[in-house]
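for the recovery benchmark. tokens below, seq after
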């Protein structure tokens, strides 16, 4: 029972902490968001202690909200004369008669959603450095630990702590309101918000955690935040819809990506009957909606690529020529090493293995990443050069610490040994 309670608290921290932080920050004002975080952490800690001793309540989420509301009211009563409440609700929160009612009201579902939107856009205010904006959203709204954010940014914990410190300094110094921006400011901030959402999804889709290659809870949280953006007419723009389409397509393959032992199943080996058709249909729906207007973002292109994979009758019948054309377009807009690596893999199917090898070897920035060497190993094994393939697989094996990735590479090594 203790283990179940601990797992539930961990799950609820991920899904509910951001909601509670957003509401409390809206009540107290953005400059008091650290106070809001403290109250949420105290609430989660109280749940951990109480549930391990008395058992999990019938409605755990409602229990958390009730405790958070009570702690917020206690804080306001205790500190009312000592702290500066910077929100527009100050007059109502100064009164003992209206305070509990206001706190209760802002924990309703529609107000929670509105508070989260306001929090997302406030965290992406231009006065806060861009790299700190994304870290702030991931920590306050998505329940990421500093370690997880560091892995997502491929950096270290100290760097993330410094970014968050700079963000907090800007919040203390500035006059940042918890409200939706307008006009050109909206588009600029929405770009950063979407980057945060996509980073959250990718951390779940290819988890840096060692116990699982997929963290569905992170992916579904990213989808939830994106749906939240589409439900507001100000942020329901083509880029938002395209990102939602992309995540639906990718999430549709969850159950086929790992086997019953939790090991990786490659795309060409996946049982396509396990792909979730409803999510694929939703992806097509959102992709069609995103085509309205003249916008063509990287999310549109990535969603189109994922759509072609999801609608192919089999791996062998995949339209690699069209996928390569999409990667050419994507590389023009985002020539990152990872995009170019994926493009090279498309080249191997649309044109030739040797051309793909030549393209990959140009990507020297990825030489220390296991995907670079694993891809070369795959191409050389297909060309019949098992000894060279084995060399690349062995290098790749040293470059990843994920057990599922290591197991996959061990299987490929065994295949190369057999072919030698």
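predicted aa per position
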């Amino acid at each position: 029972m203790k283990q179940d309670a601990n797992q539930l608290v961990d799950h609820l921290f991920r899904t509910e902490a951001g909601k509670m932080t957003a509401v409390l920050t809206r009540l107290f004002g953005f400059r008091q968001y650290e106070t809001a975080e403290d109250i949420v952490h105290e609430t989660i800690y109280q749940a951990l202690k109480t549930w391990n001793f008395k058992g999990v309540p019938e409605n755990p989420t409602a229990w958390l909200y009730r405790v958070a509301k009570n702690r917020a009211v206690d804080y306001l009563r205790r500190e009312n004369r000592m702290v500066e409440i910077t929100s527009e609700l100050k007059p109502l929160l100064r009164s003992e008669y209206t305070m509990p009612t206001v706190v209760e009201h802002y924990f309703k579902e529609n107000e929670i959603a509105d508070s989260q939107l306001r929090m997302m856009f406030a965290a992406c205010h231009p006065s806060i450095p861009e790299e700190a904006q994304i870290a702030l959203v991931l920590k306050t709204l998505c329940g990421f630990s500093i370690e997880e954010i560091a892995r997502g940014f491929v950096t270290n914990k100290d760097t993330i702590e410094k970014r968050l410190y700079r963000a907090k300094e800007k919040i203390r110094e500035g006059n940042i309101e918890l409200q939706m921006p307008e006009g050109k400011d909206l588009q600029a901030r929405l770009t950063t918000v979407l980057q945060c959402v996509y980073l959250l999804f990718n951390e779940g889709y290819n988890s840096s955690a060692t116990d699982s290659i997929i963290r569905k809870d992170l992916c579904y949280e990213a989808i939830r935040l994106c749906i939240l953006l589409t439900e507001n007419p100000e942020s329901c723009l083509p880029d938002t819809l395209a990102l939602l389409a992309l995540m639906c397509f990718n999430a549709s393959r969850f159950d086929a990506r790992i086997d019953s032992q939790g090991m990786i199943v490659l795309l060409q080996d996946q049982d396509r009957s396990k792909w979730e058709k409803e999510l694929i249909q939703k992806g097509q729906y959102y992709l069609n909606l995103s085509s309205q207007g003249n916008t063509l973002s990287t999310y549109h292109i990535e969603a189109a690529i994922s759509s072609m994979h999801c609608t192919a009758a089999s791996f062998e019948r995949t339209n690699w020529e069209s996928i390569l054309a999409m990667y050419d377009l994507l590389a023009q807009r985002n020539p990152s090493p990872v995009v170019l690596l994926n493009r090279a893999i498309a080249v191997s199917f649309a044109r030739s293995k040797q051309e793909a090898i030549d393209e990959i070897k140009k990507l020297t920035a990825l030489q220390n990443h296991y995907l670079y060497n694993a891809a070369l190993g795959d191409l050389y094994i297909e060309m019949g050069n098992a000894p060279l393939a084995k060399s690349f697989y062995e290098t790749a094996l040293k470059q990843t610490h994920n057990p599922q990735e290591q197991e996959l590479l061990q299987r490929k090594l065994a295949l190369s040994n057999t072919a030698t």
